[in-house]
Amino acid sequence: MIELRNVSKVYSNGTKGLDDIDLQIKEGEFVVIVGLSGAGKSTLLRSINRLHEISEGEITVNGNSISEAKGNELYRIRRDIGMIFQNFNLVRRSSVMRNVLSGRVGYHSTLKMILGLFSKQDKELAMNALNRVNIAEKAYIRADQLSGGQQQRVSIARALAQEAKVILADEPVASLDPITTKQVMDDLLRINQELNITMVVNLHSVDLARKYASRIIGLNKGKIVFDGKANEATEEVFATIYGNHELVAEQIGVAK
Ligand SMILES: Nc1ncnc2c1ncn2[C@@H]1O[C@H](COP(=O)(O)OP(=O)(O)OP(=O)(O)O)[C@@H](O)[C@H]1O
């Protein structure tokens, strides 16, 4: 379980990224976070695995305080948290297999990783992960020879090889076409359902949020303005989250 208690984040220039957030996410949930650009979605996600330091409050993951943890403890808590980025974050010149194996980094010494000394078990885990996202046949080609959708699948496989219990995905489909978007979102949903991995996904698209989320959280100016089941997120709710921009755009038929 992920728990945020009274969490605020103020950037060094004084911008408030998060404003007194209280939130509990249970194991196995598929949570989608929506909100206007600048609402705080990335800040929230990156605070959970401490890519960003919070200014106030506490964040715990499975009962361990990640916001307070130091050294090895932080390393151990982070091992349970996979991260997926819009730009995939792969080592583009390395093979797909090598990228997926890098998910094992939290389990071995740095030296072993540098020398590429992976066990048979690690390789099996990586291959199973690639199978789960249906790109095992690409294992030994260079990551930069894959399409965007395939690269995103490699990054999902890396999180699986990591044996993450939680996956945080920051705009995972923002740079993908509609068909590839569906494939990647379907992968995330299948993994959530089959492996009970908790998903917290930032999305721009209201339609995707409705389709895939079990729970939608709406952010506006760093505050939670909606938290409910996907089928409770009506047009009015989205109007609140987006301050009417969305509805107005729809009503007057203007592309957002
Ligand atoms: N490194 C930073 N320094 C200062 N302010 C920042 C920094 N990163 C984000 N912010 C500000 O914090 C607020 C929240 O930003 P954040 O990136 O979390 O929003 P977002 O909802 O993810 O937006 P987007 O959909 O555009 O990615 C915004 O006002 C943003 O300008």
Automatic annotation (TrEMBL):
The keyword Cell membrane applies. Transmembrane segments: none annotated. It is an enzyme of class 3 (hydrolase). It comes from the Bacteria. One of its GO terms (molecular function) is ATP hydrolysis activity. Residues 2-246 form the ABC transporter domain. Pfam families: ABC_tran. The keyword Transport applies. Its EC number is 3.6.3.-. InterPro entries: AAA+_ATPase, ABC_transporter-like_ATP-bd, ABC_transporter-like_CS, ABC_transpr_PhnC, MetN_ABC_transporter-like, P-loop_NTPase. Keywords: ATP-binding, Cell membrane, Hydrolase, Membrane, Nucleotide-binding, Phosphonate transport, Translocase, Transport. One of its GO terms (cellular component) is membrane. This is Glutamine transport ATP-binding protein GlnQ. The lineage of its organism: Bacteria, Bacillati, Bacillota, Bacilli, Bacillales. The gene is glnQ_1.
